[in-house]
Amino acid sequence: MTAPVLSLNNGAVRYGDLTAVDGVSIDLHAGETLGLVGESGCGKSSIARAISGLAPLSAGSLLIDGQDVAAGIRADRRFLADRVQLLFQDPVASLSPRQTVGALLAEPLKIRKIFNADTWGAAVALLRDMGLGEQFLSRYPHQLSGGQARRVALARVLTAKPRIIVADEPTAGLDVSIQGDMLNLLRALRDRLGLSYLFISHNLNVVGRVTDRVAIMYLGQIVETGRTSVLFRNPAHPYTKALLSSNLTIDPQRRRERIILKGELPSPRNPPSGCRFHQRCPVAQPICAVQQPRLAPLDDGRAVACHFPLSGGSQAMTG
Ligand code: SF4
Ligand code: MG
Known about the structure:
Layout: E1 6-15, E2 18-28, E3 33-37, H1 44-51, E4 59-64, E5 67-68, H2 74-81, E6 84-87, H3 91-94, H4 101-112, H5 119-129, H6 146-158, E7 164-168, H7 176-193, E8 196-201, H8 204-210, E9 213-218, E10 221-227, H9 228-233, H10 238-245, E11 296-297, E12 303-304
Parallel strand pairs: 3-8, 3-9, 6-7, 7-8
Antiparallel strand pairs: 1-2, 1-4, 4-5, 9-10, 10-12, 11-12
The structure holds iron/sulfur cluster and magnesium ion.
């Protein structure tokens, strides 16, 4: 396999005494869509911000095209911004309310001098790519529907000609049919422009549809990662299984026994000892409260952090 376009190694994000992301490693390859899944507060958005250069990593390294950019120095930030762009969770909030769509697109195009021949023409072309007509150039963000605002935000992100887009809940709050349009658009752009996506979502139906691989997060750590089709069919981590078992669309016949998690999500300020999931895990054993399981490869190419991976998953490799 070719070298990853993005490689986060042992990344941590801390805010004071809160460790939001703790020892996370992610590889993203060209043309790939990697899903990042977990409950709100598990650290997904912190990873998105760190990878996009909006928040510094507290520890670990971030390689983009093989170059280490974790130090966050000025030249690195520019290098990063030319390659990685964040599509914000709330598109309307990310668009300045006093600028027209035309100005919102022309401004970054001018700054980057990417389409210096005809900025306005380039803005129109970008809008067309988004399925929006020229008449949108004179509109303000508040005059757009949720789906249109997302398309404009996506067009603005594309003005940087990034190789990687970090999409934070790109379909949240949209009607199901508009969601489908947005996902089709993202996929078409990926294939045409050779983009890679880090696709952050808590919507398992969407993740199952669009991602090649997936990483499941719990309290700031990855607990299971691998090909989406493998994980969704046959989860090895009890938390992955619990997430999937609560979703009727993924498992319409309820072939899986439904797992109702005990208790609340613990505070990341004071994570549980041993396996962070042990107080809520239906198959926890005494060792789970004292010894933290490491993310270890299984023989089908995925990795799981559990002392007792479910029998549905393959055996953990030894050595
Ligand atoms: Fe459950 Fe133990 Fe596995 Fe953690 S390590 S998920 S508590 S079985
Ligand atoms: Mg979030």
